[in-house]
Amino acid sequence: xxxxxxxxxxxxxxxxxxxxxxxxxxxxxxxxxxxxxxxxxxxxxxxxxxxxxxxxxxxxxxxxxxxxxxxxxxxxxxxxxxxxxxxxxxxxxxxxxxxxxxxxxxxxx
Length: 109
Description:
This is HTH cro/C1-type domain-containing protein. Residues 16-74 form the HTH cro/C1-type domain. InterPro entries: Cro/C1-type_HTH (IPR001387), Lambda_DNA-bd_dom_sf (IPR010982). GO terms for molecular function: DNA binding. By secondary structure, the chain is mostly helical. The protein is 65% helix and 0% strand. The protein is built from six helices and no strands. The termini are far apart.
């Protein structure tokens, strides 16, 4: 494995921190927004970002919702695909359909 390829264990912490910083949340604010008890919110998000612990999928989904990104963003190791997911997640359903049609057209070329 090359040094440029993140291990699957390193992807979630990196994406979580990336999305949190982009959103402007502190670790505590994100944890509370995701429904984590306010007394442990900061510690738990910190442990997720450090890769010390990995949240259950339900917690990942709540974190993603709070960060306004698709859950898949938090697990995608390819930076371009992750950024596409983040952008697509902010689009209306109609615009998502248009993006998909454009992507399918590009794939056929």
